[in-house]
Design a protein that fits this description.
alpha/beta; 2 domains; six-stranded parallel sheet; Urease, subunit C, domain 1; 18 strands; TIM Barrel
Length: 452
């Protein structure tokens, strides 16, 4: 037996122990009353009664304990974009929303388009993060570059079809095949923003956001999804479709019944429609854009029935100044880390979504898709990443209270039932009852393929 400790285990071995007592604990299919013991950053025991003592104890008084949420699609900004968001504010927002691990997208500045840049971004994040953070890298066609990104810890290569992050002639199928093959040879997942650039509006005056949304039609997504599926069948690499906005796209992906394909939906695409753009304007502008009310209802139903693999927030913060411009110049994207769970818990409380499906979407399945083997579950040996939820607490979404630097939301004023009470990362309480209670640096930099 190998008794050598990894550097990460040495780092966590000095962590205080923690017991959560008298909680409703989510199991695989239901909840059970009991307590949880966490030592050295990992769950050591889950039992009805725990007689041991710990450095810190939390009396849950019947709060619901879920495995820490995993968001595979966030834009933490920082570096040259730190005025929009930085690693500390972004991970504070994550903790407030119940997310204990997030994976950062590569369209940063500078972009994460090489192994060297990925390592530099990880170095910048270390010491500043409150939750665990991993990194995606930009898609490339060079196999050596892809292998280097894998070695540096990239969780995927991101192929942004409307405008690739690394220079690629994306209109050429042969180039896309090279990208798919490079991902396969490096054993990297390929994450895809599926919109066909040739079908997006390019010219002409657009006076309203509603008009902009109507012009960015769904056929751009449909075309791109079909194209990637066709080419993926030739190569056989793993492909994950980000922020799918059309039920027809979900059907096309799921109908292939392949373990090498996965899909993602967002809270905004399942709860909002293009009608909200008419009243909210820039606050509801994102890409892919919001769809028709009919598509939104069908997408939510598909989510309820288990068709999409995961839910992600696509947390994409901008300044209000960057958003409140003319439609053509407005930056697309909204903050989502602090609203996702409360919105979905409201759906659970209203009987529109099962708690089991919520846990699968936001915790179990993201951990499986992105190979975070010790996360996304509550059992002995798993990482001590948990969120305590008050299912009864009512609230109103108020962007002015966000920890994120982006103080706007299309969900502003929405009434919710169900809220995060406490977020625990690696056995340490990071967020409790509205406050960040830990210092930056407690989160780990995650690397794909490494499982302590």
């Amino acid at each position: 037996m190998n008794n050598l400790k990894s550097p990460e285990s040495e780092k966590t071995s000095g962590l205080p122990s923690l017991i959560i007592r008298d909680a409703n604990i989510w199991t695989k299919n239901d909840t059970t009353r009991g307590s949880i013991l966490i030592e050295h950053g990992r769950i050591q025991k889950i039992a009805r009664n725990i007689t041991e003592r710990a450095d810190e104890e939390i009396l849950a008084n019947g709060l619901l304990v879920l495995p820490g949420l995993v968001d595979a699609h966030v834009h933490l900004r920082d570096m040259n974009l730190s005025y929009k968001e930085d690693f500390t504010t972004g991970t504070a927002a994550a903790a407030a929303g119940g997310f204990t691990s997030v994976i950062d997208m590569p369209n940063s500045l500078p972009p994460t388009d090489s192994a060297e840049r990925l390592r530099e971004r990880a170095r910048r994040a270390s010491g500043k993060i409150l939750v665990n953070v991993g990194f995606h890298a930009a898609a490339v066609k060079d196999q050596d570059a892809a292998n280097e990104m894998k070695s540096a810890g990239a969780f995927s290569m991101k192929l942004y079809l409307p405008n690739p992050i690394a220079p690629l002639d994306i209109d050429d199928d042969r180039v896309v095949v090279q990208v798919l093959d490079a991902a396969k040879q490096a054993s990297l997942l390929l994450t895809v923003h599926a919109e066909d650039a040739t079908k997006l509006p390019r010219t002409g005056e657009i006076k309203t956001f509603a008009e902009l949304v109507r012009l960015r039609r769904g056929n751009a997504e449909t075309s791109a999804v079909r194209r990637i599926l066709r080419l993926q069948r030739r190569i056989g690499c793993r492909v994950h479709f980000c922020h799918v906005s059309l039920p027809s796209s979900l059907s096309a992906i799921s109908n292939l019944s392949s373990s090498r394909l996965s899909s993602e939906v967002t809270p905004h695409h399942t709860l909002l429609s293009e009608n909200h753009v008419m009243t909210l304007g820039w606050k509801a502008w994102m890409v892919p854009p919001l769809r028709s009310p009919k598509d939104t209802r069908k997408l939510f139903h598909a989510m309820k029935m288990g068709i999409p693999t995961i839910m992600a927030t696509d947390h994409a913060p901008h300044t209000v100044k960057e958003k409140a411009r003319l439609p053509r110049k407005s930056s697309p994207g909204i903050p989502g880390l602090e609203t996702a769970l409360s919105l979905m818990l409201t759906m659970v409380n209203n009987g529109k979504l099962s708690l089991g499906r919520l846990v699968s979407l936001l915790s179990n399945n993201p951990a499986k898709v992105f190979d975070l083997r010790s996360k996304g579950r509550l059992e002995s040996g798993a990482d001590g990443d948990l969120v305590l939820v008050d299912l009864k607490k009512r609230g109103t979404i108020d962007p002015e209270k966000f920890f994120s630097k982006a103080h706007y939301s299309p969900f502003e004023g929405w009434k919710t039932q169900g809220a995060v009470h406490t977020t625990i990362v690696n056995g340490l309480v990071v967020y409790r009852d509205g406050e960040i209670v830990a210092k930056p640096g407690g989160g780990k930099v995650l690397k794909s393929g490494r499982h302590e």
